[in-house]
Design brief:
single chain; 139 residues; alpha+beta; 2 domains; three-stranded antiparallel sheet; 5 helices; 34% helix; 29% strand; binds zinc ion; Transposase_27_IS1; Homeodomain-like_sf; Helix-turn-helix domain-containing protein
């Protein structure tokens, strides 16, 4: 079986370092981070990669992504490089975003005015939701 990538820095330079509570433990040789496979699960890490790249394309800064998703901004930069993600040039619209729980999201949608005149997407963020809205810049 192939060793998983480090969840912290996405390095493949990872070695096995014993079993803890029936789980294989790994150590990252680049950043010295210890982790178990279970915690990582391939699905979960791919999920966060996609989410992080989504946010990046929306114009969210690396530091903000780190704060929102709890993944290091260095990882996000690595993913951007690895998947050769290019942010579209965007001068006319700028994204604003807020984090809402389910109730707040329902309330937001209940008000038609909120849905007018702007593009938006909602993306799941752990147990919350993130609403990204594009507004035309006023010149
Ligand atoms: Zn690492």
């Amino acid at each position: 079986m192939k060793n998983p990538n480090c969840p912290r820095c996405d390095s493949q330079n990872v070695s096995k370092s014993g079993i803890i509570k029936d789980k294989q433990r790994y150590k990252c040789k680049d950043c010295n981070y210890n982790f178990t496979v279970d915690k990582l699960g391939k699905g979960i890490s791919a999920y966060y990669v996609i989410k992080a790249l989504q946010l990046y394309i929306e114009g969210v800064s690396f530091r903000e992504i780190e704060r929102l998703l709890g993944v290091s901004h260095v990882s996000v930069m690595n993913w951007v490089k690895k998947y050769q993600i290019k942010m579209p040039k965007n001068t006319e619209y700028h994204p604003t975003y807020k984090i809402l729980n389910h109730k707040e999201l329902a309330e937001f949608y209940a008000n038609r005015e909120n849905l007018k005149g702007a593009g938006m997407i909602v993306t799941e963020l752990g147990d919350k939701f993130m609403l990204i809205k594009w507004e035309r810049l006023k010149h």
